[in-house]
What we know:
The chain has 211 residues and is α/β, with parallel strands linked by helices.
Amino acid sequence: MTGRWERVLVLAPHTDDGEFGAGGTMARLVEADVEVRYVAFSIATRSLPDGFPPDTLANEVREATAELGIPPERLTVHDFDVRTFPQHRQDILELLVGLWEEWRPDAVFMPSASDVHQDHQTIAAEGLRAFKRTTLLGYEIPWNNYDFSYQWYFALEQRHVERKVAALEKYASQQHRRYANAEYVWNVARTHGINVNREYAEVFEVYRVIE
């Protein structure tokens, strides 16, 4: 299936969500010459620790996606205010529909529809509406998912997880968070790999598959 993908779109409500949910898979796809496009919807200025300038996360996401092999022209960063996405649902939907009409991705990765964060919920709900004509997968953010269906596993090699960890380490402003921990990232990848008799993996919910 992935061998027939030419264009893959990753939707990140906030910078670093895409890397946590699908960083290893993005590294694997880029390695296979798939054109991966990353769209972040908020640089979460109000959530930055003291001492970091307002554009910190805009700069960090450029460094992180570059670490995964995504060139700057395939990165789009919006600036919706964090935790207000439900108020901007129509604007977000129109952006997503525009992406579909402009680019026609073969597959779209987005947050799980069961993610409890209000911004993640909005991207998931509007993603289901905007991309109903293509393959659509939901990625796991474990601390936000009370329910998650383990359906599609992407097997990863050590080098893919290494690139994921390296990308997440570019977010210096987020290193205070408990989950911003390389050992945790490795352990999650290892656990998912063991579940399907592989060394490492990432797992996704399947909403639609179109061949």
